[in-house]
TrEMBL record:
Protein name from the UniProt record: YifB family Mg chelatase-like AAA ATPase
One Pfam family per UniProt: ChlI
Species the sequence originates in: Blastococcus jejuensis
Superkingdom of origin: Bacteria
Signal peptide, first to last residue: none
Protein family: Belongs to the Mg-chelatase subunits D/I family. ComM subfamily.
Domain (AAA+ ATPase) ranges: 210-393
Length: 506
């Protein structure tokens, strides 16, 4: 009886968990038994390994093999275990030394010809291996740049199963991948392209400075989509920890851009209004994958034509927006993904969507109310900023004399405001005004009572909920930071209330 052991990594959400792969070869009728809660893809890996070994010039052992994936209670999903299974089988058969694979972590999918193919989730898998104390990891050559983002571990890229056998046998060693300079990301669209729309530009700046959700309404051509696409450029670049976190999500989702192993700028997700609940939040029948909301973590989620989304789908955003994370439950397990995204909704005032605005609208008041009611009150109550964009006039489009401010100028003001907020919130674990709990707003960061007259009257007459009251205060603090003030005054509170109470339709 021969026993060999090697390692791979399973994924649950954005977290990796070490999986010990044990292969026991014993006398008896030839066959393979795979245990440890493998899904259908993992069970099929036995056939891929058998064909890959044969086509790579080796021989699959004609003995009774028992392959155990430990911990046995954790579901194993995906094709990333192929390479570890192949190495374990070859070590048990004596083709390669068992000691060579004992502490080695192997990730990759095998083609039937013995080629090693790229897989999803390499970054969180290598991070888990490094935390567990492993020092060497073998990954597909196409994933080497992504894996090399992790420090304190040696990344060995491999192209074929034959190359791995040569390495493990000591005949030709794999070359360690050396992390090179990261490519410069493409610059985002510039805010200077947007003509007019002073109210929209102001709302965009406030949203970026405080991390506030934004709802824009206006006729077609008013610039709603253009403004939303330029919001990521106003957000500060991602720090090292945040960049790894966002990159891990996109690695699992399979949306990591080719040639750009590290996401360093805030992302922009704009799903179509036909998106399902699983596409927006996350899910899947097999391995749970992050949806558009999770892929927009630390970036922008833009829902254009928001009333056209199914109402039930939109309402699933409510809890994740509050918590900053989403947990997806399945019978085989659960996965938690961070989703602290900045939500931007855009809508036409009514279903006829006349480019001339209300003057050419043919909808009845009942039709307009029915169209607007597709967005539920609880969802809108979580939107801090609401702005109505008028049609762009001929004077603004053709005769405008003043050049609009570019992204770089506005982004500098946003960065200054964020630094002021971070200094004020130091020691709280918070970074933006939109994250401050209501109790902390009223006790630790109280706005002078003399400045709250308008917002208190709005609360008394029912125009604001208690949640809305707190959100007005958060926006007032952001306006104060943009103005360079140490505490909001009545002007900031009034502007914040105006942004909150602005009607969806003109």
């Amino acid at each position: 009886m021969t026993l060999a052991r090697t390692w791979s990594v399973g994924l649950a959400g954005v977290q990796g968990a070490m999986v010990e792969v044990e292969v026991d070869m014993a006398a008896g009728l030839p066959g393979v038994v795979l245990v440890g809660l493998p899904d259908a893809v993992v069970r099929q890996s036995v056939d891929r390994v058998r064909a890959a070994v044969a086509n790579a010039g080796g021989e699959f052992p004609k003995r009774r093999l028992t392959i155990g994936l430990s911990p046995a209670s954790m579901p194993k999903q995906g094709s990333g275990f192929d390479l570890a299974l192949a190495a374990g089988v070859l070590a048990a058969a004596g083709t390669v030394p068992a000691a060579a694979v004992d502490r080695l972590v192997l990730l990759g999918e095998l083609g039937l010809d013995g080629s090693v193919r790229a897989i999803r989730g390499v970054l969180p898998a290598v991070l888990a291996a490094a935390r567990a104390g492993h020092r060497h990891v073998v990954v597909p050559a196409a994933n080497a740049a992504e894996a090399a983002l992790v420090e304190r571990i040696e990344v060995l890229p491999v192209g074929t199963l034959s190359d791995l056998v040569e390495h493990l046998s000591g005949r030709r060693r794999l070359t360690r991948h050396v992390r090179g300079p990261l490519p410069e990301p493409a610059p985002p669209p510039d805010l200077g392209d947007v003509v007019g729309q002073a109210a929209g530009r102001r709302a965009l700046e406030v949203a970026a400075a405080g991390g506030h959700h934004l709802f824009m309404t206006g006729p077609p051509g008013a610039g709603k989509t253009m403004l939303a696409e330029r919001l990521p450029g106003l957000l500060p670049p991602l720090g090292d920890e945040a960049a790894l976190e966002v990159t891990a999500i996109h690695s699992i989702a399979g949306t990591l851009p080719a040639g750009a192993p590290l996401v360093t700028l805030p992302t922009f997700e704009a799903p179509h209004h036909s998106a399902t609940m699983a596409a927006l939040i996350g899910g899947g029948s097999g391995q749970i994958r992050p949806g558009a909301l999770c892929r927009a973590h630390r970036g922008v989620l833009f829902l254009d034509e928001a009333p056209e989304f199914p109402r039930a789908v939109l309402d699933t955003l409510r809890q994740p927006l509050e918590r900053g994370s989403v947990t997806i439950q399945r019978a085989a397990g659960s996965a938690t993904f961070p989703c602290r995204a900045l939500l931007v909704l855009a809508a036409n005032p009514c279903s006829c969507a006349s480019a001339a605005g209300d003057t050419a609208c043919i909808c009845s008041p009942l039709e307009r109310r029915r169209y607007q009611s597709r967005l539920s009150g609880p969802l809108l109550d979580r939107i801090d900023l609401r702005v109505t964009l008028p049609p762009v006039t001929r004077a603004a489009w053709l005769d405008g004399l003043d050049d609009p401010e570019p992204t770089a100028v506005v982004a500098e003001r946003v960065a200054t405001a964020r630094r002021a907020a971070a200094a004020r919130l130091a020691g709280t674990g918070l970074s933006t005004n939109s994250q401050v709990p209501g109790r902390m707003l009223r006790e630790r960061f109280a706005v002078p009572r003399a400045s709250l007259g308008l917002v208190e009257r709005a609360l008394e007459r029912g125009a604001l909920s208690v949640r809305g009251f707190d959100r007005v205060l958060r926006v007032a603090w952001t306006l104060s930071d943009l103005a360079g003030r140490t505490v909001p005054g009545s002007d900031e509170v009034a502007e914040a209330l105006g942004m909150r109470l602005q009607r969806v339709a003109a």
